[in-house]
TrEMBL record:
Keywords: Disulfide bond, Endonuclease, Glycoprotein, Hydrolase, Metal-binding, Nuclease, Signal. This is Phospholipase C/P1 nuclease domain-containing protein. GO terms for biological process: DNA catabolic process. The keyword RNA-binding does not apply. Belongs to the nuclease type I family. Gene3D superfamilies: P1 Nuclease. It comes from the Eukaryota. InterPro entries: PLipase_C/P1_nuclease_dom_sf, S1/P1nuclease. It comes from Thelephora terrestris.
């Protein structure tokens, strides 16, 4: 069965109000992805997700409309990060890196010697296994109050965001955390620049015409009045419904490999401790294919993210010392940051993540196709 999204959101003209302020991807990026996904769910899917995340109470039974209205996937989109240090076993599930991967000179996915860490204990395996756990919950009849299903859903929503952040897919320097640069004169690192500063700029410079609510109820009912709402309107109206309209279906294509039996969270934890390997090729099948989806995203580390100047004097190279007074490369320039803005790079990453998350949830939970 091919994954499909629900194209219910219409395109509307909108007027202008004040320009939004800045917000960091640390929370905003994951919440944007979750909000976009929620917009493309089949109508019968969101109530099921809400029942998993918020088991029904007597109050809900008395006011079901109020309960459904208060449920938003964005509220749990950062849960996996907030509790990451309490669940240290889950840390490696947020990223993946190939051995020998060193953009921009070498982009290996995986590396010639495989993945760093343990195969399967990474974001690719995390998506595969949370998908499997939720499929088991559906097959069991959807028992209420299932903590495994609740945690699997929270992890899945978050992992789809991580998968579409290219720096979560590279083995170089802890995903760029160890590579200092400047953004608008401020010392940062490549990871934080993409995780936070570039997205903050995208939110800040979103044109005025996206700031006023539209007449599209299907779009607006899923927004929360957040500072990034105008950016979501831009992505949905003129991205998914406009410049990327003809390629959205291709975002859901999978190569058709056979996936293994899903691992429980306990089995994943055991593998992490004992070091038992699980082949990364086993993450993909004809329906959900995180490795296939991630491969071109990883290539962005060579194409977009790491400028060659980073490894040349005076910013890098054999004589460069991280503890020296060497200058740091400025990335908020027309050639680097400006190109990212002009090409809607971050916006497209959010769109792809949201559409793929929605399609996967529709596949798992929709009783019938609409």
């Amino acid at each position: 069965m091919k994954l499909k999204f629900n194209p219910l959101v219409n395109v509307c003209l909108i007027a202008s109000v004040a320009t939004p302020g800045a917000y960091a991807w640390g929370a905003a990026g994951h919440e944007i992805v979750a909000t976009i996904a929620q917009m493309y769910l089949y109508p019968n899917v969101l109530p099921i997700l809400c029942s998993i995340l918020h088991p029904p109470t007597q109050l809900d039974a008395e006011s079901p409309d109020d309960s459904a209205q208060s449920c938003s996937l964005s509220y749990v989109a950062t849960w996996a990060d907030k509790f990451r240090f309490r669940m240290r076993w889950s840390g490696p599930l947020h990223y993946v890196g190939g051995k020998g991967d060193h953009p921009p000179q070498q982009c290996h996915f995986p590396g010639p010697d495989g993945w760093a860490g343990h195969d399967g204990i990474n974001v690719l395996g995390g998506i595969r296994n949370t998908t499997g756990l939720l499929a088991e919950w559906v097959q069991a009849g959807g028992p209420e109050g299932d903590p495994v299903a609740e945690e699997a859903l929270k992890f899945m929503i978050h992992f789809f965001g991580d998968l579409h952040m290219p720096l979560h897919l590279t083995g170089r320097d802890r995903g760029g955390n160890g590579d200092k640069v400047r953004w608008d004169g401020r010392i940062s690192n490549i990871h934080s620049t993409w995780d936070s500063l570039i997205v903050a700029k995208a939110i800040r410079i979103t044109p005025h015409n996206y700031t006023k609510p539209t007449a599209d109820h299907d779009l607006e009912k899923n927004l929360r009045g957040a500072i990034y709402d105008p950016l979501i309107r831009k992505i949905v109206i003129d991205g998914i419904g406009g410049k990327w309209k003809d390629e959205v279906d291709s975002w859901l294509e999978c190569p058709g490999q056979q996936a293994p039996e899903p691992l429980s969270m306990w089995q994943q934890t055991t593998q992490l401790i004992l070091g038992r390997a699980w082949r990364s090729s086993d993450t993909d099948d004809e329906v959900v294919c995180p490795y296939h989806w991630a491969t071109p995203l990883h290539a962005m580390n060579c194409e977009w993210i790491w400028p060659k100047e980073m490894d040349e004097p005076p910013y890098g190279g054999p004589s460069f010392s991280r503890n020296s007074s060497h200058p740091y490369l400025e990335l908020d320039t027309p050639e680097y940051g400006g190109k990212i803005t002009r090409e809607w790079v971050v916006e497209k990453l959010f769109a792809m993540a949201g559409i793929r998350l929605a399609a996967t949830l529709n596949y798992l939970f929709a009783a019938e196709e609409l």
